[in-house]
Amino acid sequence: MVRKKERLTDPEMNDYRQHVNYGAELVADMDECTPEVEAIIAQHHEFADGSGFPKGLNGDEIEESAQIVGMVNFFDRLCRPQFGAPARMPFAALSHLFKENKAKFNPRLLALFVKMMGVYPSGTVVKLSNEDVGIIISVNSTALLKPNVMIYDPDIPSDQATIIDMRDSELEIDTAVPISKLPEEVKAYLKPRTRISYFMDADS
After folding, report:
1. In terms of Cα–Cα distance, which of 26, 175, 200 is closest to 113?
2. Secondary structure element (H or E) that encloses residue 175, with its range
3. Are 76 and 49 in contact (CB under 8 A)?
4. Considering the entire predicted model, what is its pTM?
5. pLDDT at 152 (0 to 100)
6. Long-range contacts of 46-54 (CB under 8 A, 24+ apart)
7. What whole-number distance in Å separates Cα of residue 155 and Cα of residue 60?
8. Orientation angle between helical segments 90-100 and 107-117, nearest 10 degrees
9. Domains of the chain and any CATH numbers
10. Residue 82: closest CA among 29, 138, 13, 155
11. What's the gap between Cα 193 and its chain centre?
12. Which residues of the chain have pLDDT under 50?
């Protein structure tokens, strides 16, 4: 069912939502599973506004660790959707999460998440002020508008591509570029959505 490309029917969605209960039951008798992990498994689809499942919990009824995992899971599903939903690049996914769905999340945790992800999250394709196109590969937590960018250059193999730390460059990010508008050769070179790894600075 999770591999289905089309929107789920109501019975299929009800069946899908049971995975939370199945997971909670599986770990309930595991001595090595801490209460915090049990809460994450049981509550990672609950939302602060009560619109989640399986129990429709509200606000602080949801463990903070489960709120964090639920928010990250929601963001990931915007980038790598299921059931026929459109895929968003990380920049658009973060904007959609904050503008259209912020009621679902703890405001403090959401603000921290946006700060840590940066204005242009890793995986976002951008055009620079010199017209070069590249993909954000990591965020500088002390300079959110100055990430590290891997540049498309057909004269250099992709495994040797130039990476610019924009803190050391006079270049600026001009705009984010939708993946759908990239030429195929640029898409093949940058491989958007297959290079995304997030490493968070504990001090950020």
Report:
1. 200
2. strand 173-176
3. no
4. 0.75
5. 98
6. 46/70, 47/104, 47/105, 48/103, 48/104, 48/105, 48/106, 49/103, 49/104, 51/104, 52/104, 53/17, 53/20, 54/17, 54/18, 54/20, 54/21
7. 54
8. 160
9. 10-117 (1.10.3210.10), 125-190 (no CATH)
10. 13
11. 10
12. 204
Per the document, the length of the chain is 204
CA dihedral sign of residues 100, 103, 104, 109: positive
Question: b vs e for 10-39, b when ≥16 Cβ sit within 10 Å of the residue's Cβ?
Answer: eeeeeebeeebeeebeeeeeeeeeeeeebb
Question: Which DSSP letter does residue 141 get?
Answer: T
Burial of 171 from C-beta contacts in 10 A (0-12 / 13-18 / 19+): middle
Single-letter residue type at 160: Q
What's the token pair of residue 142? 């002390």
What is the token pair recorded at 95? 């904007």
